[in-house]
Amino acid sequence: MTGIRQLADYLDISIGTVSRALNGKADVNAETRRRVLEAAEKLGYVPNQSGRSLRKGSTGVVGFMMQTGPEITSQGDAFFMSVFDGVQTVLSRHKLDLVALLCSSNEDPYAYLQRTVARGFADAIILSATRRNDARFELLHRHDIPFISLGRSLTDVGQPWIDLDFEGMAEVAIKRLVKAGHRDIGIIWPHGDLNLGYLFAERCREVLAEHGLALREDHIFRAKPSEAGGYAVAHEIASRSPRPSAIVLVNEILVTGLYKGLEDAGVKPGKDIAIIGRYSPQTQFLSPALTCFTLSLRDLGISLAEHLLSIMPAYQSHYVGQTPRVIWPMTLIEGTSG
Amino acid sequence: MTGIRQLADYLDISIGTVSRALNGKADVNAETRRRVLEAAEKLGYVPNQSGRSLRKGSTGVVGFMMQTGPEITSQGDAFFMSVFDGVQTVLSRHKLDLVALLCSSNEDPYAYLQRTVARGFADAIILSATRRNDARFELLHRHDIPFISLGRSLTDVGQPWIDLDFEGMAEVAIKRLVKAGHRDIGIIWPHGDLNLGYLFAERCREVLAEHGLALREDHIFRAKPSEAGGYAVAHEIASRSPRPSAIVLVNEILVTGLYKGLEDAGVKPGKDIAIIGRYSPQTQFLSPALTCFTLSLRDLGISLAEHLLSIMPAYQSHYVGQTPRVIWPMTLIEGTSG
DNA sequence: ACTGCTTCCGAAAACGATTACGATCGTATC
DNA sequence: GATACGATCGTAATCGTTTTCGGAAGCAGT
Q: How many CB atoms neighbour CB B143 within 10 A?
């Protein structure tokens, strides 16, 4: 492994000069810098991460925390992969690297985060799957780690967040269904304590009320955020009497199972029951094509990264004055399901 | 932040003793160790990662390299999350952490890997999406980094790998279809240079030959590994004349789009054309349910981690004598599609 | 009392980078 | 010609750990 010492020996100059040359400091001769850069390239020198971050007190990596396991996350891989891509395009401009901090399903997320934070693994953190009350916010705030969350929470420590506009989605979806003549609209509320469920349900209730309609308690269906969860809840929906004439749901993974479950129960989606949900790469290939809300995940990632940078002391000069909180709009794709 | 120095001062002993006590070295008094542990707990001491790994030359993290972006990975949704979960259950027993090394879609994977390796980011690496010829293998081998790949490659530097049994899958699928009377079977070969495509196609050809059948060149369909890719290829399949009476495919993401595409073209899956593919959480909720091959992704992850440990000098004593290469069997789920 | 052996702990040297500081040299200023 | 100053570079301290080495103390055997 070639370190800075080998590089210095090779060039017959001191390691201090090498370091300054590589880090773009002013007090180094242009010719010397050129030679250093050239030699570094030639010998394939890359600064050792541990040495550098020990000295600098920062690591140059941003962590995106997510939970592993089959049924935990409310989003699919494709979701995160696209967001990551956006995040990285911004971070790479500042020579920051993104890594996914993977919290095992049998480890407590709070303890996991505590551990990685104390270890000094990342300079900044992006949180996802925010819960109604999320202690991780306080933890990061206490340790003074810059972070942003993809998702709101009741827990507020003044950090920036970006969240999808579930309330706007609720509004548009409900209005659309009411306009189409639906009077009994049900919703699917994903299991767990994710905040988005509350936001969504509450707004649905409000909008219905504005139209003089009620959200029946027995038409609020709970489901695990998975294909199987969708299948299971479909039977509940089908067998409820009275059965809602339309369903709105926030989780894009459910819908495959939901369709099949309804069909198996003799209720044809889009015909016997209207469905409005969230876009995923599959939804347009279901029959009938799902009427759903979509967004550019890559742009979401870009925004996430930019706002995160804006609160990182070493980088904030680049992005001053941006809004710290964003409710990300979604656009409707008209399918034939509702 | 409380470091080892604060801890030592607090206890009025030397930092060397503190370190030895915490690391379970033998030459430290039991009572002293107890006090150290207690104080560490009380003060919330966690060793600084940079300092530790600088000294030890190892980081305690295992990296799982993957590429971000919407259409890059050949695997879908829950695939990686489940594998990760398995990997972690093993690694956590050895106090190793798993992070996903995210290579941006607009960065060269080789360059990315080179950078992270030279930086000394991870002690060991898990590679996925292995290509027919994969230079990353040589890179890691040259740097003497322990690694394992999820997937074979023609490039062989003696590293362990685990790969799904695509050949076995080809065999079972083809035989099943032939037995059902199919004489003209087509396959879908995912775009890109992933090795699995070659393995699969080759074996299909062989098995067909054993039954006196040929794999027609114009019945080898190329498709992007995405839902949209499946939709696009469906039209090719439907319009080919003669049209194959059955299709086998290795990629689980394609199938949603494939179904829809075929239907739109008036070819009913499972009726007009038989389909056999790979399991994903969605496949059982499609109509007709996909006949497909499945496996325990969590177990796969466990095996991946165990074999990786077996070649890591610091851990190998735990797992000696295991096979370095595994072809992972898949089991057939009989759906109604073929 | 001396030696030998444990048991325990402190001192100090690494690990690889960054950076404050000082040294050197040449040049400009008076 | 003395002084000041800018440009450039080397020296050494530093970050927080781990680990080697040796020393001190205690004990047993002679």
A: 16
The β-bridge relationship of strands B124-127 and B61-67 is parallel
If DSSP codes are grouped into helix, strand and coil, which group holds residue A187? strand
The beta-carbon contacts of B267-271 under 8 Å, at least 24 apart in sequence, are: B267/B234, B267/B237, B267/B238, B267/B243, B269/B337, B270/B335, B270/B336, B270/B337, B270/B338
- Residue A312 tokens, joined: 């990182």
Q: Look at residue A41 and give its three-state secondary structure.
A: helix
How far, in Å, CA of A164 to CA of B290, rounded? 33
- Pairing type for strands B274-278 and B291-294 reads parallel
Question: How far does the CA of B24 sit from the C1' of D20, in Å?
Answer: 17
Option in B48, B70, B226 nearest A120 (CB): B48
Angle between helices B195-210 and B166-179 (to 10 degrees): 40
Torsion of CA A209, A213, A214, A219, to 10 degrees: -130
Q: Which nucleotide is nearest to B29 (CA to C1')?
A: C8
Residue A310: closest CA among A322, A325, A326: A322
Specify the pTM: 0.91
| CA nearest neighbour of B293 among B259, B330, B325 | B330
Q: Residue B77 has what pLDDT? A: 57
Residue A28 CA distance to nucleotide C24 C1' (Å): 15
- pLDDT of B109: 93
Surface-to-core class of residue A314, CB atoms within 10 Å of its CB (0-12 exposed, 13-18 middle, 19+ buried): middle
Q: What are phi and psi of A165, to 5 degrees?
A: -85, 75
Amino acid at B238: A
Of chain B, the end-to-end C-alpha distance in Å amounts to: 62
Distance from CA of B153 to the nearest CA of A (A): 24
**Can you state the angle between helices B135-142 and B109-119, rounded to 10 degrees?**
10
Residuewise pLDDT in 10s, chain A (338 residues): 789 999 999 999 999 999 999 999 988 999 999 999 999 999 999 999 999 999 999 999 999 999 887 655 555 567 888 899 999 999 999 989 999 999 988 889 998 998 888 888 899 999 998 999 999 999 999 888 999 999 999 999 988 999 999 999 999 999 999 999 999 999 999 888 889 999 999 999 999 999 999 999 999 999 998 899 999 999 999 999 899 999 999 999 899 999 999 999 999 999 999 999 999 988 999 989 999 999 999 999 999 999 999 888 888 655 555 557 999 999 999 999 98
Q: Which strand C bases fall within 7 angstroms of a protein CB?
A: 7-12, 14-20, 22
Say yes or no for a CB contact (<8 Å) between A85 and B98.
no
3 state SS for chain B? CCCHHHHHHHHCCCHHHHHHHHCCCCCCCHHHHHHHHHHHHHHCCCCCHHHHHHHHCCCCEEEEEEECCCCCCCCCHHHHHHHHHHHHHHHHHHCCEEEEEEECCCCCHHHHHHHHHHHCCCCEEEECCCECCCHHHHHHHHCCCCEEEECCCCCCCCCCEEEECHHHHHHHHHHHHHHCCCCCEEEEEECCCEHHHHHHHHHHHHHHHHCCCCCCHHHEEEECCCHHHHHHHHHHHHHCCCCCCEEEECCCCHHHHHHHHHHHCCCCECCCEEEEEECCCCHHHCCCCCEEEECCHHHHHHHHHHHHHHCCCCCHHHHCCCCCEEEECCEEECCCCC
Q: Which residue positions in chain B have pLDDT lower than 50? A: none
Closest CA to A83 of A300, A331, A309: A300
The pLDDT mean for chain B works out to 91
Return the bridge partners of A148, or none.
A126
